[in-house]
Hints:
Layout: H1 3-16, E1 20-25, E2 31-33, E3 36-37, H2 44-50, E4 58-63, E5 68-74, H3 79-85, H4 90-97, E6 102-105, H5 109-117, E7 122-125, H6 132-145, E8 156-159, H7 160-168, H8 173-196, H9 203-216, E9 227-230, E10 251-255, E11 259-260, E12 263-264, E13 268-272, H10 279-297, H11 305-322, H12 330-335, E14 376-379, E15 382-384, E16 400-402, E17 405-409, E18 414-416, H13 425-432
Parallel strand pairs: 1-7, 5-6, 7-8
Antiparallel strand pairs: 1-4, 2-3, 4-5, 9-10, 10-13, 11-12, 14-17, 15-16, 17-18
Helix pairs in contact: 5-6, 8-9, 10-11
Amino acid sequence: MNETHFLNCRHNLLQLMEEGVAIITSAPAKIRSNDTEYSYRQNSDFYYLCGFNEDNSILVLIKTHEFTKTILFVEAYNEDHALWNGARLGVEGSRERFSVDEVYASAEYSGMIKELLREHVNLYIDLYCDSPRIIEAESAAQALHSMRGIKRYVRSIRDISYLIRSLRLIKSDEEIAIIRQAIAITAEAHHEAMRVCQSHMREYQLQAAMSYIFLNSGAVSEAYGAIVAGGNNANTLHYIDNRDELHEGDLVLIDAACEWELYASDITRTFPINGKFSDAQKEVYEKVLEVQLRVIDAIKPNVKRDWLQNYSEELLCDALIELGILVGERKALIEAKEHKKYAPHGIGHWMGLDVHDPCPYVDESGESLAFEAGMVMTIEPGLYFRADDESVPERYRGIGIRIEDNILVTEEGYENLSEMIVKTVNEIETMCQN
Length: 434
C-alpha cells in the first residue's frame, strides 16, 4: 500500500472530526505462554490510518479551525531489541518513511499529552479500548479541567472507532487489489484440499495442505481459525478441533482463508471426501447453491442489507419446504422461526482488514445501511442437519453444507471476487478427481 492511501485515510477521518484531538493506539504484543509471544498483529484501525506495523506506537490527529496536524509516536531504536527481535524503524526511520508532520519516541508521549490536549474541546478515542495510553489521555484531560489559566478544556469524549470503521466500509482500489491477492491464494488452497482429500485422512491434514499453500505464497497462514469439518462436524458452526478422521461417503466443509498485507479473505466450500456427491448430498448442495446465486444476483447499490437477509431467509425456507423438512406456508414458518433450526446464521458480513470487519450495519438513525460501490461482503448461506435430528428425513441426517464467496459491490451491481473457486457439483467432482 502506498503512502498516498494512508494520507487519504487520515484526510477523510479529519474531515469527519470536529475540532479536537484523536488518539489511536497500536495493538499490544500478546503473551502466548510464559515468555513466548503470539505473532504480532496490528490494530486494524491504527494500520488503516498509517500503515505502521510495530507495537507501542500512538497516532495523534489534531484539528483546529486553522490547521490539522498528524503526530506519530514510535518505539525508539534499541540495539538489544535489534539483536534479539529485529530492528525497529525508530524515530529517524519513521520520519523518512511516513508522511506525518512530527515523529517522537513513545517514551515522550506521557510528558507531551497534556500539552497536546490544551485548549481543545473534543477528545476522540476508542471508548472500548483499555490501552494505558488512552487512560493517560483521559487523565490529562481531567487535570487540564482543574488547572487555572485554561480557557478551553475537553468537554466531550467521543468514539473515534465508529468514524474510522464507517470509512473502512468503502474500500479503495488499492485495498480491493490486496483482497484479490488474498483470495487468489485462498482459491489455490481450496483447490488443493479438493485434489488431495481421501478417506481416512485426518481433518488437520487437509488444513496442513492449505496452510502450505498460504505460507509458501507469502501470506499469513490463516485469516482466522480454520474450520475443517468432516461429516456431522459440519453441523457445529464454529468447529475448529480439526482432529477427526474423514470417512468414505461423507462431505467435508472447509471454511478457511489467508490474510495478505493484513487484509482478509473468507471462503467456504463443501465437497465429497471420495470425490462424488451422493444423491441426497447433491439435493441439499444444489439447494444451498441456488440460494447463494440468487442472493448474490440481488446485490447492487441502494439495496439494503436487512432486505438481503430477509430475502435469503425466504429462499432458505423455500428450500427446506422443497426438501420436505418443513411443512407449511413460508410466511408462517418464518414468523415462527422454524427455519432457524436448520439455517441459524446470517447471510454474510463485511470483510476487509478484519475477516469480520466491525463496520456499521446501520446508519445514525438506526436504519439498515444500503449497499454502496466499494463495500465488500461475504455471502454464505448454509443448511445444517444434525445426525441425531429425527425431525429430518434419514437420508439427509449428518449433512452440513455452507457455500461462501466474497462479493464486491460495484456501480453496476456486484463482482464475485472469488468466482474462480469451483462450486458447482460438476466442477467440484472434476477438481476432486484430478
